[in-house]
Amino acid sequence: MRHPPYHLRPNKAVDRLTFIEAIALLAQVADLSEYTYYSLGGPYLEDCRLLYEFHPQISMVSIEEKEEIYKRQRFHLPCGMLDLKLDEFKSFLAQYEANDRKSIFWLDYTGLEVGHFEEFKGLLGKVAANSMIKMTLQADPRRLKPAKFREKFEALMPNPSVNPPATTLDFAYLVQQMIQIASQQALPGDMPHVFQPIASFYYKDSVAMFSLIGLVCPRAERENVKAIFKNLQFANLDWQQPKNIDLPILSTKERLRVQHLLPCKKGAGKVLRKELGYLIDDDEEKTEMKLEQYAEFHRRFPYFMKATP
Question: Which residue among 190, 255, 280, 308 is least packed, with the fewest CB closer than 10 Å?
Answer without folding.
Answer: 308
